Every structure is written in C-alpha cells, then in structure tokens.
Amino acid sequence: MLMEGEDKNLRQDKKQQKEENSERFREIRNVLRKNQIARGVSPEKLRVILEDLGPTYIKLGQIMSLHSDILPKAYCDELLKLNSDVTPMPFEDVEDVLNQSYGQNWKELFQSIEETPLGSASIAQVHRARLKNGEEVIIKVERKGIYDTMARDIGLMHRLVKLMPSVGDFKDLVDLDMVLDELWFVAQEEMDFLKEAANMDEFARNNSSIRYVAAPKVYHEYSTGHVLVMEYIDGYGIDDMENLRSNGYDMDEIGAKYVNNFIKQVIEDGFFHADPHPGNVKIRDGKIVWIDMGMMGRLSEKDRRTMIKGVRGIAMHDISMVENAVLEIGEFRGKPDRKKLYQNLKKFIAEYGNTSMGGLDVATAIEELVEIMKQNRISLPHGVSMLCRGLTHVQGVLAAISPDINMMQIAVNRYTEEFLKNVDWKNEIQKQARVLYRSASKGAEIPGLMTDILKEHLEGQSSINIDLHSSAELTNVISSAIRNLMIGLCVAALLIASSVICTTDMSPKVLGIPVLGFAGYAFAMAVSISMTIRYLWSKRKKK
Fold this sequence. Notes:
Layout: H1 2-34, H2 43-53, H3 55-64, H4 73-79, H5 91-102, E1 110-113, E2 119-120, E3 124-131, E4 136-142, H6 146-163, H7 170-173, H8 176-191, H9 193-206, E5 213-214, E6 227-231, E7 236-237, H10 241-246, H11 251-269, E8 271-273, E9 281-284, E10 287-290, E11 296-298, H12 301-315, H13 319-329, E12 331-332, H14 338-352, H15 362-375, E13 378-379, H16 382-401, H17 407-422, H18 425-458, H19 472-502, E14 509-510, E15 513-514, H20 515-542
Parallel strand pairs: 5-10
Antiparallel strand pairs: 1-3, 2-3, 3-4, 4-6, 7-9, 8-11, 9-10, 12-13, 14-15
C-alpha cells in the first residue's frame, strides 16, 4: 500500500514537471516569436531576448560575453550591457535555503540577518548579517531552485536551437549547442559555493606575501554548497575616486598596484580573477581587496610559455613565431587555412609590430588578435578566453582611475623580473655551451661535406629530390603547353610525310599532287588555322 502511494506521488511529480517544462517551452517560444527570431538575431535583439526570458538567461548572457573567441565582438559588447541586478527573492525563500543547507533554523547560528539584500543577481543574492559572537559578515545565498531551473532552461534551449531556422547571421556564425554546453559548465561552477570558498583560500595563499593585497576571510564552518559566509568588507570601490582622494589615496599608486598584482596572478600564479571590474575590487586600509571569486581563470604552464612566445614574436616582428604561438595555444574548428592565417598575422604585425611594448594598447591588440583567430576558426582554451576579457576590464579600470599607467610596460617589467629571478644560470650557461660546441663541430665538417658532394656530382652519383606543389592555374598552363607541343609535333610529322608522298608518282592526283599528300597538307593547314584562332581568342578574353 505504501509502495503504491509512493508510485502515485512519483507519477504526479513527473506529470507536474512535464507540465512545467511545456509551459516554460511555450513561454520561451513566444518570446522568440515576439522578437521575430526567424528574421535573424542582431546583437541588440539577442540582449533583449535574454532580458525578456528572465534571470537565468541574463546570467547565461553575461557568461557568453566572456567568450570573444566564439562570439563576434559586437555580440560580446552588447551582452556586457545586461543588468546584473535582478528582482530579489523573498526573504522567506532565503530562510528556506539557509534552514535546508544547515539542517536547522538559521537563528541558531546568526544573531540577525538584514532582510533587504545588498545586491541580488541571477544565481545568488547577498545579505549583511551578524554571527552569535557579534562579528559582522556577508551571507551569499543561492537562489531557491536555481540549479533545477537553469538545467531545465538549458535543455529547452537545446531543443529550440534545433528548431531555429538557419536565417540571419547568429546561428551561422557559432555552434549554439557548443556554446550552451560551455555556458552550463561555467554556470555549474558558479553555483558551487564550496568551490568559490576554495578559490578564495587559494587566492589568499598566493598573495599572502603581498602587503597591499587582501581577500575576504571565509567562515568555512558556516559555508555550504548553497551558502557562503565571508568577512564583511567596508571599503571604497576602486573607481570611487572622490572618496579615495579625500581620504589621502594616490590614484596612480592604486592603478599601478592593481595592474601589477593582476599581472602577477597571471604570470606567476596561473590563477587569476576573471572578472576584475570595479564592483569586484575594493580599497580598504591601504589594501586592494579582491572579492566575488566565483569566476576565476587558470592557465597551464604551457599556455603561459606560449603566450610569452607570442608577445616576443610581436616585439621581434617574427610572424612565424606568432603563428606558431597561435597554433600551439588554439584549436582549429575545421580544416586550417595556413596561408590565410599567415596573411592575417602579417597585417597584424605590420600594425602593432612597430609600436614599443610600453606604448601598446593591450585591449585593442588582444581584440584584433582574437578576431583573427575567430576568422580562422581557431578556438581558445577556456582560461585564455577568460584572460582576454579580464585584461580588457583591467585596461578599462586603468583608463578611468589612472590613464597614465601603462599595463603593457608593467607586464614586460614583471616578466623580465620573474625571468631573472627564476632562471638557473648554471644550467643556461651549460645548455648554451653545448649548443655552441655542437655548432662549432658541425661547422668544421662543412668543407669536407662540400668536397664529397662536388665529387659525387662530377662522378654522376648525386641526385636531388624536389617536391613541387603547383597551383591549379600553373597546372592548367603546363597542361596547355604540353598539349600544344604535341599537336605541333603531330602537324610537323604530317607535313613531312605529305612532302615525302609528293615526291612519288602515286595516283590518283589533285592538281598534280598525290591525293594522300594533298589531304595531309589540308589537314595540317586546318589544324594550324584552328590553333591560331584559339590563341587570338584567348588573348582577347584576357584583355
């Protein structure tokens, strides 16, 4: 009897879920129809559609804006305009999430929680609170049912992508199924608050020796996968120049330390804040405090070396070095066109290669390089694409608070310092000595090798293998030349044979010439006239 009741409840839950999915599917379809999706998806239209679909899709749009390697720049720029602030969830829902996460009433752990949130986003909202010991903290609470909602919406979008007509530029430019899978992966990471807590701990360890950098303290005993409790940061936003200056801060000093630390995160740690906009960077007690670490980027040692190689290639005007760096760090989506890629990079080097490293506009250069990779259907690793967007944010902050600070110059200085600090000079000297010895040994052998080659050539024993790759145009020219040569030889042979026949007394005759000889002359003449007409016609067509 109990099992029958459970089965009945299960069937009812499935039926209700199916009805909810159908209703949401109709809602999404109506929004798409209202915005005339069949006529194409412009950047502005995509933003409006996501806003109409609600908080879940606003978050997806914000994640999409980070992928300039997949989406055209115009779409990324438009999606950056999506408003992060959404309608707060009721405090009753906040209480439900807290009680369910802790397995007890939240009042057993906290003195109080302010009902009005400090901020409300698509995935979570933030409240000020006070622990039982009187410490003031920040509580980040995941929206009730957000995981199931996003999973459902992503699944429905996959269905709608298959139904979307191939009209307009958006669907033709990107693989929407791949984009949705990537978005879901990133969203899942952001919804795991234990991962964010681990990110904050790792960031704090990496920067523990830097006196002017800090991160909020995490209260692990109060944190779960759905609730994150951290230190309350009472400071000024990094772009709050009026208050910062009135409190004695030097904006140039803040700008230099801000960018220096970000470059340190990238080059030394390979673990960096992927969303360093002004809202996520506070100034408190003379320190730069990085907050909101749900979105962090990672770079492997190989990726960092490859990126440095690419920067060196730009500085040295070495197109091949830049091309190799691009091919090493990226992945072709389809058949590569090396010639097109080389020409694109050649134009890029011509534009930026003459600029001093200190005078390079990093954001613009990165945007153009990413655009080149996009045109050649080259995908960037997730960490590198996040870095591109992060660097753009950093440059934007610098332009606002300290426009005289040059990010590229600081990066070059940081790289040089790190190289000199970490290089093993003994090993480097030994390695270069070995290279020099091998070069000297091989160089001494060159005269003897040249003597052997010349000797073999004079004795007729040498051979050279040549592998030629011709273009279609060259192949046609050669084929035509060979064909004309063979026809010419045949005509010449026919004329000679006809002339020999004419010396005989062969009958019957035409105009005193043997018929066979006359026919040979006539045929040879007809072929010659035909070839002449063909040649003149081809010359006229070229004009």
